[in-house]
């Protein structure tokens, strides 16, 4: 995809200083710019690079005035950082503006497919599936029976969406994610053997949900595992059966949430956090990385450690923990002196 400086300035509502006909096809960092690239300068720390960059076009703030000769065409805008972000979004939309049904792929005769849908090669679309307008399903995906995927959602290669699950509007599901696998439900008998408990519920992803690569969300035993509007899940996260995650909560990689736990709205949960089942975590909670949560958590708490303490108590305790060798040494010296006096 090639764009001229004039075309880009039109998209960003900017002004060209230099060759308005010069074309670019890639985006790059200013220090790594090459011919045919477009880059940006917003942080003054990187100003020296504008005099050496080989990028064909550089987006700058309107206030920027070069102090010596430059070899890159400038596009001046109100805010270079926001303009470049807008350009990234536009570039991504153009790059992923695919449609049509690639072959070989399987689409059930009972499936309902919207307009401008893309289904990549080697994908499987099951019975009674409903796919909304502008949905993109990349190659090697499995969409099980009775799944409903609403408009503008993008499902990347290798995703599996099991039967009866629902996916909202404007969702992103990254490669290798599995939505709706069986929950971890087993019942022991008197001999200590385990029998599988059927998992007959589903998973509901509401609108604007992002699911990271290789993240798994288990179907409910009964009812639904629910990921509310605006939730963002990082890579390699495990969400167990009947969990509910509230609106606009974000969870970093390698976190595990056990069954039937309810997490509130606007929470921020760090990486490698472990959360036990059947508890409730309130709204606006912050949990630091590698914490272990084994109790109910009230609104607005900030936690760290395993088992987790309040953030302030953890830091105070950690200061003492670091000083334990000195404290032990001091106690030993006191004991020796006491023994010598007896």
UniProtKB/TrEMBL annotation:
Which enzyme class? transferase
Respond yes or no to whether keyword Acyltransferase is given for this record. Answer: yes
The UniProt record lists the UDP-3-O-[3-hydroxymyristoyl] glucosamine N-acyltransferase non-repeat region domain at 22-89
Q: Which UniProt keywords apply?
A: Acyltransferase, Lipid A biosynthesis, Lipid biosynthesis, Lipid metabolism, Repeat, Transferase
Give me any GO biological process, just one: lipid A biosynthetic process
Pathway linked to the protein:
Bacterial outer membrane biogenesis; LPS lipid A biosynthesis
Recorded protein name is UDP-3-O-acylglucosamine N-acyltransferase
- Where does this protein come from, organism-wise? Bizionia argentinensis JUB59
> Highest lineage ranks of the organism?
Bacteria, Pseudomonadati, Bacteroidota, Flavobacteriia, Flavobacteriales
